[in-house]
Specification:
157 residues; mainly beta; UDP N-Acetylglucosamine Acyltransferase, domain 1; 8-stranded mixed sheet; 21 strands; globular
């Protein structure tokens, strides 16, 4: 039994493997990438080639993941600095009531399981984000960060 919800507006490259219980809409997935079970990728998100998105991860609108990126299990991206359910007048917020803030994960980066990536962040090439980290600021190329909030552990050559 295979349950997947993939809308007609999703652009899927060649050789992409998508597991069960996935929700994809309005996004792009590059060639030979793998999307694990229980993953949601929202409209406007872009996944590069040869990426691995592990199970239970959430990739929201505005997230741009370049080629060869590893996303561990249960990684969450955020695209709103000040989320609210309702406006000050009590009306429910709509898409017009907020601004999506983009996040970029550059090629060959790895993000460990359970990490949370705040919006407006750039994760550099070959960077590693440790499991459970909360990334609140940019991560430079060739560095390893970990902790809450994520801090520099070391630079790789």
């Amino acid at each position: 039994m295979e349950f997947r919800c993939i809308s007609d507006d999703v652009k899927i490259g060649i050789g992409v493997k998508i597991f069960s219980f996935v929700n994809l809409y309005g996004c792009e997935i590059g060639d030979h990438s793998k999307i694990g079970a229980f993953v949601e990728i929202q409209k406007g998100a872009k996944i590069g080639k040869r990426c691995k998105i592990s199970s239970h991860s959430f990739i929201c609108e505005g997230v741009n993941i370049r080629d060869n990126v590893f996303i561990g299990h249960n990684v969450t991206f955020i695209n709103d600095k000040y989320p609210r359910a309702a406006n000050t007048d009590g009306t429910i917020k709509t898409e017009e009531d907020w601004a999506c803030i983009s996040t970029y994960v550059n090629k060959n980066a790895s993000i460990g399981s359970g990490a949370i990536i705040l919006c407006g962040i750039k994760i550099g090439e070959n960077a590693i984000v440790g499991a459970g980290a909360v990334v609140t600021k940019d991560v430079e190329d060739n560095t390893i960060v970990a902790g809450v909030p994520a801090r520099l552990i070391r630079r790789e050559v």
